[in-house]
Design brief:
Elements lengths: L11 H30 L9 H29 L1 H20 L4 H29 L2 H32 L4 H4 L1 H15 L13 H24 L4 H23 L13 H31 L4 H7 L1 H21 L1 H18 L9 H16 L2 H11 L5 H35 L8 H9 L1 H8 L6 H37 L3 H4 L17
Length: about 525
């Protein structure tokens, strides 16, 4: 029964529904894109994008999103959260329209970057609006519904993307956002009340600029090196510039009285450890998701819709086990639960190093499920540790830091593991390209998608090239998977050395639920 002194907004649950729609459109787009990668690489039915360009189509969004997340949270509090949510949705819808009708990979990458601007405006203000319209006693439940929308998007995104690609052209995976965004803008205008922070913080413009420039330069160097070789000055020069700018960013943040990222928090082991775990896990997992989509669609010849359905065990495991993991943390402690979750994740990632072109598909499904169970049991204990390490008034900071680290680590995972994949593939397929026409040789040397496109023009020689490309890709996948497993295993060391156990977390577990609960799910 609802209490009479409930201080929440009368339309709070309808408002939450609008916020869930706003969140769905952001998360859904990224899960849909993974299924569309093969189509975008097709020179006939897509854009003929190279592997590096496909990585940038993902990373341009992620890096812009992560770089602007802090700043847009502050600007939303200052200018009005409702206004910022509507601006973010409008930008996201416009960028979706531009992405759908892009004529080249470069246009798609630019449109995806604009989409990142919109996403960065949407994500933080939805949390602020929830805090504003819900009574503290209902806030935890509302945040749980908000976070559950992420799991829903992960589950339906690949299936929706595959269905659209089966019946329409590739641009439909972006065009689907437009009517949802239009409905979202109308509903926000009608239902969501305006709110502002009475004491807004200052914007750290230099810090934001340095973080974006540093991350973009670092990722560009890694992607370029993977695509063209690390013996080029452009690759290592970009990497060095990125590292130098990020070092400048850290120094600036230490000296600033209004930092966009309070790097001093990383001196607190109980805060730094779970944030590091989130980063390592998403670095490994996002890279594996990137190459597994190519494996299923090219090497195994599944359609986009079938590929989306094959990802369901991963999403299903998240939906089943993530809500139950908080109870496991209370019973067994964060260190034990996170260690088991990381152990399962390492096993699943390492298993990809043994999966070949003819491995029974049920084995792949089991591996996806184990990975989903593992990751579902990593985020809650990591979040609990962040909550216990920070005072209640800094809860939002913990959530923002964890979200940003997750986004950046995922982008770097795609970049680094994609570069390893590309470099090993090019090294392994070299001998099989002797005697091919120059154009076919160049296309096949670039990526497995290029090899399949080239094979279409070779006639009787096509089966030999496809077999060589599949073998080279599987070998490259094994190396990338092994590296991802090593990265996730580093997380195990962090857990066992610095993660607090049940005794350390007991006092914090009684604290009211706040934004950090979302750190691992959004």
């Amino acid at each position: 029964m609802e209490l009479h002194d409930n201080t929440g907004h009368p339309r709070r649950w309808a408002i939450l529904g609008v916020l869930v729609i706003s969140l769905l459109v952001v998360v859904l787009d990224n899960t849909i894109l993974n299924v569309a990668l093969r189509t975008l690489a097709d020179p006939v039915h897509g854009l003929g994008a190279s592997q590096g360009e496909l990585e940038w189509s993902i990373n341009s969004y992620t890096l812009v999103f992560a770089g602007l997340l802090f700043t847009f949270g502050v600007l939303g509090d200052r200018a009005g959260r409702k206004r910022f949510l509507m601006i973010g949705l409008a930008l996201f819808g416009l960028a979706s329209l531009l992405s759908a009708y892009a004529d080249s990979p470069a246009q798609l990458i630019a449109a995806r970057a604009l989409m990142g601007v919109g996403g960065a405006a949407i994500m933080p203000v939805t949390l602020s609006i929830i805090s504003n319209v819900f009574d503290p006693r209902e806030r935890g439940r509302a945040i749980g519904v908000w976070a559950g929308a992420v799991g829903l998007a992960v589950a339906i995104g690949p299936i929706l993307g595959g269905t659209l690609l089966e019946h329409f052209w590739w641009g439909s995976v972006f065009l689907i956002n437009v009517p949802v965004v239009v409905a979202g803008v109308v509903l926000v205008a009608l239902l969501v009340p305006e709110s502002r922070d009475p004491r807004p913080g200052r914007v750290d413009l230099l810090g934001v600029l340095l973080s974006v420039v540093g991350l973009v330069a670092l990722s560009y160097g890694i992607i370029d090196g993977g695509e063209h070789g690390f013996d080029r000055p452009v690759a290592w020069g970009s990497i060095l510039v990125g590292i130098a700018v990020l070092a400048w960013f850290v120094r600036h943040e230490l000296r600033s009285d209004h930092p966009s990222l309070d790097v001093r928090l990383f001196k607190v082991p109980r805060f730094a450890a779970p944030v590091a775990i989130v980063g390592l896990v998403f670095f490994a997992a996002m890279g594996v998701m990137f190459f597994s989509s190519f494996y299923l669609q090219l090497v195994r010849d599944y359609s986009p819709l079938q590929t989306g359905l094959l990802f369901l065990p991963f999403a299903g495991a998240q939906l089943i086990f993530a809500p139950r993991s908080a109870a496991m943390v209370r019973r067994h402690g964060g260190r034990a639960v996170a260690a088991v979750g990381l152990g399962l994740t390492v096993v699943a990632l390492a298993a990809f190093a043994f999966i070949g072109a003819s491995t029974p598909i049920w084995v792949v499904l089991v591996v996806f499920f184990i990975q989903g169970v593992g990751m579902a049991n990593i985020m809650p204990p990591a979040t609990e540790s962040i909550m216990s390490a920070l005072p209640r008034e800094k809860a939002g900071v913990g959530s923002a830091v964890s979200n940003t680290v997750r986004q950046v680590a995922g982008a770097l995972g795609v970049a680094v593991l994609g570069s390893v994949l590309s470099a090993v593939y090019r090294s392994d397929i070299g001998d099989a390209l002797t005697g091919l026409p120059a154009q076919a040789r160049d296309a096949a040397d670039e990526s497995i998608s290029g090899a399949y496109a080239a094979a279409g023009q070779l006639g009787p020689a096509a089966p030999t090239l496809i077999s060589a490309a599949n073998d080279a890709f599987v070998t490259a996948m094994h190396w990338a998977a092994a590296l991802s497993a090593v990265v996730a295993a580093l997380g195990m060391l962090v857990v066992l050395r610095w993660m607090p156990g049940r005794e350390a977390l007991a006092p914090a577990s009684a604290a009211p639920a706040t934004e950090p609960e979302l750190a691992g799910t959004a």
